[in-house]
Amino acid sequence: MTATLPNHMLKTVEKTVLNPNYRLTKATSNRKNITYATHVVVHKLEELRNYDCFLTRPYNPATQPKVLLFFDEKNLAGKVSAYLAKQLPPAEQAKNVVCHYNSDMSNAYLDQKHDGFTGAPGNCKVLCATSGLSQGVDFPHVDIVCSVGVPPSIVEALQHGGCGGRKAGSQSLFLVFYEPWACDILLDEYTAGDTNNPDRTCRIPLPLRPTRPERACYASLQFVQYWSCLRVFFGNHLNDTAHDALNFETKFCCPYHPTTEIFDLSALLPSPLFTQADYKIAQQAEKDAEKEKKAQARYRDPADRHKLDNLLIAWVDMIAQSPKCNHGYVNPEDILPFNIRKTLVWALPPSFGATNGLKSIVNGSDEWHSLWSTDILNIVREYDQQLAEEKKNRKNRIKPYKKPT
After folding, report:
1. Hey, which bits of 41-196 come out as E strands?
2. 245-262: per-residue pLDDT in tens?
3. Hey, where are the domains in the chain?
4. Residue 382 burial (CB < 10 Å; 0-12/13-18/19+)?
5. Which positions fall inside the Helicase C-terminal domain (predicted)?
6. Is 185 left (phi over 0), alpha (psi -120 to 50) or beta?
7. pLDDT in tens, 346-370
């Protein structure tokens, strides 16, 4: 049999499954062509700008690496996929450069997306997948693997990382994204349950629907709080005594391995990481947009609302009926709710900020804006341009009255 097991599980297998005279052959799970890294994201995993680093900027298909993102939560995987797709140039957005992949989808769809990502001529460069697909699914030609969130276990993290660099002669980066709270939990709190089990989550009694901090396992928190060589950590966790367990052929082993060069994670990614400074700038821009929104107190002329309303209704009906465009949303109310449509129809053109677009007047989620905001804004602006032109022509056709002499 073959297995990647921590010590406490290996002992159980030895006692209950293997024959007394079994022969143990060890091979390291620390592949020497993989660079390991961890990164604490800004704010939280739902801050979608954290994922901008996985696309080249400006986007260039020739230099864009193959990136595989693993998520524990399907909803987050869908949000990130939709967001990244919207960051592409308009000409690239319909080419399936960014795809969403989870086991709830049809086999035909999964096969299509898998082939698009793994095939040599495939268009897919970034695949957002659920964690379970790291097992039993072959992903060759992957340059970067990111495990999003504190891993459920170290073994699962290694399975994620092992999906990268499978092509002969290639190298890859395995990165773990985690939230700031992971550094605040004290490992000494993990005193309940089987203390020989490194994957224990018995820090506190778990509620019916535990939060991410509540379900975080001991070994994974130990991993993200580890400030020494990550390759050594993986080796110790699995009692990996293979002669080549600590060997590496990449430029860097990990951020904490002794080296004369400075480890710069952004330099190993397609574009720079989203930083706390970037977040503060974005927050200030959002506050300015909110002030701009509150300053708007006038509304569109009632005579000009009906036609725009019909245009928006026609657009949302078309999107809802198009599998290529609806991102899985088939209910028009989920795409363009009545209250948002009313806001758009009533708002004057100056209400739409030059830089913030619909965010100036619509309190939609980041996901909503990433999916629909650009298309809707184009409809409204085109309507307003045509309306302004019609009013101008109408005014020019009205000649001033001249009193007969």
Report:
1. 67-71, 98-101, 126-130, 144-148, 172-178
2. 999 999 999 999 988 799
3. 27-276, 288-396
4. exposed
5. 40-212
6. beta
7. 887 766 665 567 877 888 888 888 8
